[in-house]
Amino acid sequence: MQAQAPVADTDAEARGVFEAGRAAYAAGRYEDALQYFQRAYELSGRSQLLYNVGQAADRLRQDERALDAFKRYLAETPNPGNREEVETRIQILEGVVADKRAKEAAAVPSPAEVAAAAPSTQPAADSEAATASDADGPITSKWWFWTGAGVIVTGIVVGVVIAATGGDDAIPVTNGTDGMVIEALSAAR
After folding, report:
1. 92: exposed, middle or buried (Cβ count in 10 Å: 0-12, 13-18, 19+)
2. SS3 content of the chain, % helix, strand, coil (to 5)
3. What is the pTM of this model?
4. Which of 49, 113, 172, 177 gives a 20 to 30 Å CA spacing to 132?
5. 189 residues of the chain, pLDDT tens digit each
6. What letter does residue 188 receive in the DSSP assignment?
7. Domains of the chain (ranges plus CATH)?
8. Residue 153: which H helix or E strand, with range?
């Protein structure tokens, strides 16, 4: 009889934490909702809460965390009614995460690029000769010209993208992912 008391206490605590998460989610406080849903899952072990964790993480653009939660939800939940919706969301998030990783990989310069961009360690024999060599050649052969051009082009591209999308950072939401939360703890198991 005593063994059931801690389980009932834990279940009651999980329900309370879940309700707090549901209220936070409804109020748009997704960071709080995410923490509450995660804690409710830790207390109860109910896999349906992983969907809620994924939803809150998705709203926060924590794409990798949302992806992980949705995959675990499908793996741990037998025959969920929203399987197709979650699988679609997983596909979208996998694309977003892959794009993010590709951009991060492209942003890291190779050792050859770092070496080429590093200033020469050989001292100039004469400061006038160094100044004269800087003046020699067309402007397009200068590193600073191409750096400035790259900054300008990047700024233009970013401006066009923001103008075209209206500055909305949201990932497109597909059918059924309208922010609902599964009421995993509203009724006893």
Report:
1. middle
2. 70, 0, 30
3. 0.58
4. 113
5. 445 556 678 889 999 999 999 999 999 999 999 999 999 999 999 999 999 999 999 999 999 999 999 999 999 998 999 999 999 999 999 999 999 988 888 887 767 776 776 665 555 555 555 554 555 678 777 888 788 888 898 888 877 777 776 645 555 555 455 556 666 665 544
6. -
7. 4-103 (1.25.40.10)
8. helix 143-165
Interatomic CA distance for residues 145 and 138, integer angstroms: 10
- Cβ–Cβ under 8 Å, residues 177 and 89: yes
Residue linked to tokens 């770092």 = 114
**Euclidean distance between CA atoms 50 and 66, whole angstroms:** 9
What are residue 65's phi and psi, to 5 degrees? Answer: -65, -40
Are the C-beta atoms of 33 and 56 separated by less than 8 Å? yes
Listed in sequence order, the DSSP H helices in the chain are 4-26, 30-44, 48-59, 63-76, 83-107, 111-117, 127-135, 143-165
Other beta carbons within 10 angstroms of residue 179's beta carbon come to: 13
CB-neighbour burial class of residue 182 (10 A; exposed 0-12, middle 13-18, buried 19+): buried
The pair of three-digit structure tokens given for residue 101, joined into one six-digit string: 């990783």
Burial 3-20 (b: 16+ CB within 10 A, else e): eeeeeeeebeebbebbeb
